[in-house]
Amino acid sequence: MKLSLSITKIIIFADKYREFNCQQMNQDHENKQLPKWRLKLLPWIKWTVLLILISIPLFGGLDKVPIRFWDESRSAINAYEMHQNGNYLIPHFNGEPDMWSTKPPLMIWLQTAAMKIIGVNELAVRLPSAIAAFLTCLLLLLFARSYLKNTLFGIVAVFVLITSGGYIEMHGTRTGDYDALLTLFTTMAGLAFFMFCEYENRRFLYLFFLTSILAVLTKGISGMFFFPSLFIYALAQKKITAFLKNRHFYIGIGLFLFFACGYYLLRESFNPGYIQAVWQNELGGRLLTVIEGHEHPLLFFHNNFILYRFIPWYFILPLGIVAGFLIKDDKIRKLTLFSFLMALGLFLLISSSQTKLPWYDIPMFPFLALLIAPSFEFLFRMCAKIRKSGFLWLQKALPLFIMVLVFIVPYVHIVKKTCYPQRSHYIKGEQEVDYYLQEVYRGRPIHDGQFLVFEDYGAPHDFYLKMIQEKNIPMEYKSKDNVASGDVIVLFQESVQKFIEQRYEVELLSQEGTVLICKIGEKKTENTDNEIE
């Protein structure tokens, strides 16, 4: 009996000693002081690694895909002609004021500045979009850090954003289009409005009006598409009187009207008919009628989310919204409500538009990312409830493990898509010649006095010729009616090829897909020409 009691006492003592020893080890580990240089260096290393991971899908392979048809090539020509003629008020196309692309010129200004700094090339056209996307990511990080005091929340939102196929995409962050820059300013304006509702600080009010002006100067009326959502949120938070009683609100409206609307009036005075073109192309035209055949069903944008633009995050979105309202944190709840109203408002607006194009949804993506983040925050808070001393390492490591597990596949996919683009993913046919021209610009040997022959709209081909001529490479444009015997020409349009073959003997020098390098021989007889006609 005594022996049994003695053994029991020993076991109890040993157990208490083990518990005390574990607590002491944990305390010693927590109190252990790292060298000062390591303490200062560690945050820099973490942020550097984070920014590199963000930068890879934004900047990697940015100049690998040729300049795209329509909007990107149009803005590239606008920027090049502005670079040449010095007219910073009116973008030009083929020497005339551009009345097809009627957006204000902020994006064109940035592309022109890039051309002056790094030269006339694809990077100059696309860097403003990539930088805007990078700044959008920084904005989400800084907002989460300053407002929520939760950097991890911002990191999750950023990784959702940069792994969203609809955001890291052609006509998004990967090309010289307007949408990435527009998204930067609309996101900044939205968050500034949100912060004013929270703190009623006039600095946020002025920031809202400033970024709204920049949004309008980027893509016109699209810069105001979030205004209905902002009004509804202010109404829900009972903040309407905070705006109406604030004199800085009226000063901001005056500044907005002066700069945003002032550009339209100023350009109209130098370029009569501009406002009418804006109405037909942006306002009544796109919203109320179908332009250029872009007619799609009501659920067009929703279906795109499911198919490719917001995969896999679309399926987590309902969980994020529910978690955002369930988490016992008023700031996260308010942010969830705000982001939900912003995303829903734009979704309903663009879905009701008669003209629908896939990239109209791009300004939604930062707010969708902020709606996904609460689902991860909920998991992280569950991890924080692990309090057993033996599992302290798990409490700290589990959030990182969850992030790696969830984001590794989407991140690798997006890096492959951006840094190693496949030619089959992009436009074939007429766009194939631009791969050839891109190679010529980068040093591919060509015949002396080689001409590019094409007809109809060819803005990307025009831009590549300008790039090539900037490097003093002897290649020029020639119309099909002006080719002559002895010319070495590049053909890629079947109609042009047939036209020339009917009139000249043609020697095929080489062929790559649809691109033909030919030498013009003797002209065929007049009788043959008459028979053909």
Notable traits:
two-stranded antiparallel ribbon, 533 residues, 64% helix, 22 helices, globular, alpha/beta
Report on the architecture of this protein.
With 533 residues, the protein is an alpha/beta fold. It folds into 2 domains: 382 residues, no CATH class; 104 residues, no CATH class. It has 22 helices and 7 strands. The strands form 2 sheets. A 5-stranded mixed β-sheet has the order 4-3-5-7-6, with helices on both faces. Strands 1-2 form a two-stranded antiparallel sheet. The longest helix has 30 residues. The N and C termini lie far apart (122 Å).
List the helices and strands and how they pair.
Layout: H1 2-31, H2 36-59, H3 71-85, E1 92-93, E2 96-97, H4 106-118, H5 122-148, H6 151-162, H7 179-199, H8 202-219, H9 227-236, H10 240-244, H11 247-270, H12 274-281, H13 284-288, H14 300-309, H15 317-326, H16 330-352, H17 365-383, H18 392-419, H19 432-441, E3 450-452, H20 459-470, E4 475-477, E5 488-491, H21 494-501, E6 504-512, E7 515-523, H22 526-532
Parallel strand pairs: 3-4, 3-5
Antiparallel strand pairs: 1-2, 5-7, 6-7
Helix pairs in contact: 2-5, 2-18, 3-4, 3-20, 4-5, 5-6, 5-7, 6-17, 6-18, 7-8, 8-11, 9-16, 15-16, 15-17, 16-17, 17-18, 19-20
